[in-house]
Amino acid sequence: MFEIVPERPQDAAPREALLDIAFGTDRHNRTAYRLRDGVLPVRALSYVALIDGAFQGSLSFWPIVVQGARAPLLLGPLAVDPAGRGQAVGIALVRNGLRRARRLGHDLVILVGDHAYYKRFGFIRAGRFKLEMPGPVDQDRLLIRKIPRGQIIGVTGPILPALPEVAA
Ligand SMILES: CC(C)(COP(=O)(O)OP(=O)(O)OC[C@H]1O[C@@H](n2cnc3c(N)ncnc32)[C@H](O)[C@@H]1OP(=O)(O)O)[C@@H](O)C(=O)NCCC(=O)NCCS
Question: How many A from CA of 79 to the centre of ligand 1?
Fold first, then answer.
């Protein structure tokens, strides 16, 4: 059995190694990473899956800015160690993250991923909202979900990184 716990300092190295395996060492060139440059993930939403105390997978969320949402998030990256896949670890990480995001008052989640996987959590394709990612993205993989689940109204336009404000 696995457990879902807040990310610990010792999880950072296996997380990065797993992400290299899952998405490639050139993953930082992907458009989603333009929303992560210079921004920290939401610490209260960084969770890992452990099996017998050992790192097995992780999920992070990042603050973003988009018109029509008060506190939107970018979900990802989500990855589960190949040895631990197919045991609902990924599902548990996403459900845990969405539940906690709701408690923290976040109202919208956007991600780039497989609709076939994420539709179970209520994500829909975002095409109709005319959102603009900061680079090329497969529109079929741009997914969106309101928190709590519900109709999405007024969300449109550029998706921007939530860069920290720098004092002049
Ligand atoms: C995608 C990933 C996180 C799933 O983790 P997991 O713990 O193996 O998945 P779970 O056991 O929670 O879920 C299993 C279900 O998801 C389905 N599934 C897994 N990957 C899928 C995908 N890419 N597309 C559609 N369905 C998928 C399985 O068929 C299974 O469906 P079922 O419940 O109907 O039988 C894992 O395969 C992974 O790390 N992949 C590489 C990185 C990646 O693609 N991340 C997500 C992209 S945004």
Answer: 9
Task: Locate the domains of the chain by residue range.
Answer: 2-161
For 133-165, write each residue's pLDDT tens digit: 999 999 999 999 999 999 999 999 999 999 988
Give the global pTM.
Answer: 0.96
Distance 73 CA to ligand 1 centre (A): 21
Q: Is 78 in the pocket of ligand 1 (CB under 6 A)?
A: yes
- ∠ CA 105-107-109, nearest 5°, is 120
Residue 100 phi/psi, 5-degree rounding, is -70, -35
Please provide the CATH number assigned to the domain covering 2-161: 3.40.630.30
Ligand 1 pocket test, pick from 75, 117, 137 with the greatest ligand atom count within 8 Å of Cβ, gives: 117
Distance (Å, whole) CA 47 – CA 58: 6
